[in-house]
């Protein structure tokens, strides 16, 4: 170590192998999926996953057979034995079918360590010898061993497993006998392919884990895409599961998409190009109604999305009993509404397919990457929950290069492209939600009444007032005395579901009002604690100013610095005090006594709350017209203007950069001695198809909107000033114009 130029080299410990396999891959389901993806990359058309009992930890085995091109001894030595090999980077498409390969990092093969204690691989290329590899993963666990000190046993010999008419041929013949139609299938003699045998299972395989595996594998390849999408033909690729005789043998068979996916209530199909231009068709499969959407969908920042073009097939269901009851007439394998709802939930999730193959874990029922459930909490009337949506999004490695996998093979790397993908898809989903709301909305209704969507699931936990709304005691008696009376049991189930739905509607209504009340209480706390702190700050500032005065004769420089600090901090303290004054009208306290005030002065105070946001988005705001004197509570004016200006700011922020962003507020007294407040903007405006719905309580066309702003503003205008809030078309600016007309207390 005497030389400054001494070199050293990184040397991996042998346990790196277990890190790559057992720890990098999150679970056994994902590990098996990686092996299936390897078969796909090898141009396999069929993969057979055969379980051999006992399927308990430490025992049994899993075999993954494929009819791909197999590996030669040279491939094993020069590619398979290299960790993080660049082989797939050099050959991004498969050699026979030209499939875009799914493996690129050279570590997926080590997922076998997650499944079994020993991995035995047999592989053969057509016309070549058979290669056998055996890895005992415990050999790599020695703490002091380096990777290059642990030998891997492998040999080359005459074909046995993949010999002509050998075990591979017999197995595949047995699986495909009833389905063989093409000449290529009939001609395959079993002379090439790969077998991965995983011995000494790492976990027990029971009903729940097997069902989870089947769901995951069923979504590796999307169902047949609609003709409208012009998606490239899906490759000939099938997966077959085989289980030993026993409680799991009914799961034996080909993996396929659930029949429930073919019967959604609503469907959204179409494309979004690289500039964000959407060409989408929304269809209600129950009524046959449809509508075409052709407009730009931009992420929240208002710029053209960076994610690249995509194709979309979104399927959704209404989860109320009446809607699900119709599905019992379809052969879904469900006996009642509860089982139909479970089928939909099990197949829910938005799946992402790159070049025809699924990107993990998109599509898992519990991977809510588009935040459906969070959006629904904000607005249960409008929004879908994650368990009522099944979506299929198609991208490609060439067309969407910015959407890249994480190293552990689950999810995409967080990037602007990924955020834009989520933003554009959420915009598309929001259009479907809005259209669905319009179809379900009672015709001829007056704006404003509360409407609540059906439940996201029956039988949710209830407490207090709602805990006794259950038929469980009756069900216990029926199950005890009439266990074979299926008609009575079904009637009880449907009655309980109806009760569950009704109770959930009441709970959602109470929850919404509780949130409103809590908001007012929260503002009260902020005002109280904030003003207490300001009082303390003001006291400290006065002491600081006195100290500056005493020190002036001793140290002029110090005194000047203290004085400047006092001036600056006092300005900030006053700014906070003004902010609290503007927020006060939103508190839960009693309304103030109406008094004569300048309408434009009150508007200026309300607008000032948005000063920072206006500047951030480059929005110019102007208050003009006749400065009318009205008799009003300043908080009422603030609340109306606050909501209208807030809406304008949101929609202006969605405009592409470079477009005009302007808000104009005009006030006037009409010849009928009424007072108008018009708020106009240069945004995208209100789409014609939703103009009748925008004043409904809980209706919102915003991505995360609650749907209360216009409703609250309208209630203030109507209840306290005998007025109304309306959408004016056309307005002075190109976007939306809302008019608040006051008829009382305007003298």
From TrEMBL:
It catalyses: ATP + protein L-histidine = ADP + protein N-phospho-L-histidine. GO terms for biological process: phosphorelay signal transduction system. One of its GO terms (molecular function) is ATP binding. Keywords: ATP-binding, Kinase, Nucleotide-binding, Phosphoprotein, Transferase, Two-component regulatory system. Pfam families: HATPase_c, HATPase_c_3. Its EC number is 2.7.13.3. The keyword Ubl conjugation does not apply. Gene3D superfamilies: Histidine kinase-like ATPase, C-terminal domain (3.30.565.10). Residues 525-746 form the Histidine kinase domain. This is histidine kinase. It comes from Streptomyces caeruleatus.
């Amino acid at each position: 170590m005497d030389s400054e130029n001494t070199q050293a080299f990184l040397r991996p410990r042998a346990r790196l192998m277990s890190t790559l396999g057992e720890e990098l891959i999150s679970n056994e389901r994902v590990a098996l999926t990686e092996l299936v993806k390897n078969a796909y990359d090898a141009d396999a058309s069929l993969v057979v996953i055969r379980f051999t009992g006992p399927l308990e930890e430490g025992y049994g085995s899993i075999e993954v057979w494929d009819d791909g091109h197999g590996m030669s001894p040279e491939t094993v030595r020069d590619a398979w034995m290299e960790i993080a090999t660049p082989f797939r980077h050099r050959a991004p498409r498969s050699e026979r079918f030209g499939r875009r390969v799914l493996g690129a990092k050279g570590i997926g093969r080590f997922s076998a360590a997650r499944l079994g204690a020993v991995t035995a691989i047999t592989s053969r290329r057509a016309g070549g010898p058979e290669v056998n590899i055996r890895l005992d993963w415990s050999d790599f666990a020695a703490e002091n061993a380096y990777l290059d000190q642990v030998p891997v046993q492998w040999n080359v010999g005459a074909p046995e497993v993949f010999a002509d008419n050998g075990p591979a041929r017999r197995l595949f013949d047995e699986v495909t006998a009833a389905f063989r139609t093409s000449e290529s299938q009939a001609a395959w003699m079993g002379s090439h392919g790969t077998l991965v045998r995983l011995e000494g299972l790492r976990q027990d395989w029971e009903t729940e884990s097997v069902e989870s595996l089947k769901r995951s594998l069923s979504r590796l390849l999307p169902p047949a895409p609609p003709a409208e999408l012009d998606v490239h033909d899906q490759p000939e690729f099938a997966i077959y599961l085989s289980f030993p005789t026993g409680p799991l043998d009914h799961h034996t068979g080909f993996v396929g998409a659930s029949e429930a996916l073919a019967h959604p209530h609503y469907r959204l199909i179409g494309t979004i190009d690289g500039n964000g231009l959407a060409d989408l068709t929304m269809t209600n499969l129950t009524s046959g109604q449809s509508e075409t959407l052709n407009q730009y969908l931009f992420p929240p920042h208002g710029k053209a999305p960076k994610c690249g073009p995509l194709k979309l097939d979104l399927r959704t269901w209404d989860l109320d009993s009446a809607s699900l009851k119709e599905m019992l007439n379809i052969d879904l394998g469900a006996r009642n509404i509860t089982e139909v709802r479970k089928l939909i939930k099990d197949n829910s999730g938005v799946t992402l397919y790159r070049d025809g193959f699924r990107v993990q874990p998109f599509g898992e029922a519990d991977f809510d990457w588009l935040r459906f459930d969070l959006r629904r909490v904000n607005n249960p009337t409008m929004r879908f929950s994650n368990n009522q949506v099944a979506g299929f999004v198609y991208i490609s490695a060439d067309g969407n290069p910015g959407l890249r996998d994480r190293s552990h093979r689950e999810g995409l790397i967080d990037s602007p492209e990924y955020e834009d993908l989520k933003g554009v898809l959420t915009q598309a989903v929001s259009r479907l939600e809005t259209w669905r709301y319009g179809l379900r909305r009672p015709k001829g209704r007056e704006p404003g009444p509360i409407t609540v969507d059906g439940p996201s699931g029956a039988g949710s936990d209830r407490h207090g007032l709602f805990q006794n709304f259950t038929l469980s005691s009756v069900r216990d008696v029926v199950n005890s005395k009439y266990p074979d009376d299926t008609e009575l049991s079904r009637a009880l189930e449907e009655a309980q579901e109806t009760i569950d739905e009704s109770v959930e509607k009441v709970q959602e209504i109470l929850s919404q009002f509780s949130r409103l009340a809590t908001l007012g209480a929260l503002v009260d706390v902020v005002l109280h604690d904030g003003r207490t702190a300001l009082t303390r700050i003001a006291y400290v500032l006065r002491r600081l100013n006195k100290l500056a005065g005493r020190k002036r004769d001793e140290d002029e420089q110090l005194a000047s610095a203290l004085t400047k600090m006092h001036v600056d901090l006092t300005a900030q303290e006053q700014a906070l005090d003004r902010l609290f004054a503007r927020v006060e009208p939103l508190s839960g306290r009693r309304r103030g006594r109406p008094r004569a005030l300048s309408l434009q002065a009150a508007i200026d105070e309300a607008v000032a709350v948005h000063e920072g946001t206006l500047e951030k988005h480059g929005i110019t705001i102007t208050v003009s017209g006749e400065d009318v004197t009205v008799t009003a509570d300043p908080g009422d004016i603030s609340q109306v203007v606050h909501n209208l200006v807030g809406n304008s700011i949101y929609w202006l922020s969605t405009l592409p950069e470079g477009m005009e962003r302007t808000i104009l507020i005009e006030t006037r007294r009409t010849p009928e001695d009424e007072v108008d407040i018009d708020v106009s903007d240069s945004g995208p405006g209100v789409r014609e198809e939703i103009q009748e719905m925008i004043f409904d309580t809980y209706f919102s066309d915003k991505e995360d909107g609650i749907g209360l702003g216009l409703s609250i503003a309208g209630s203030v205008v109507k209840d306290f000033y005998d007025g109304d809030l309306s959408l004016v078309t056309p307005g002075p600016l190109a976007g939306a114009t809302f008019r608040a007309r006051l008829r009382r207390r305007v003298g």
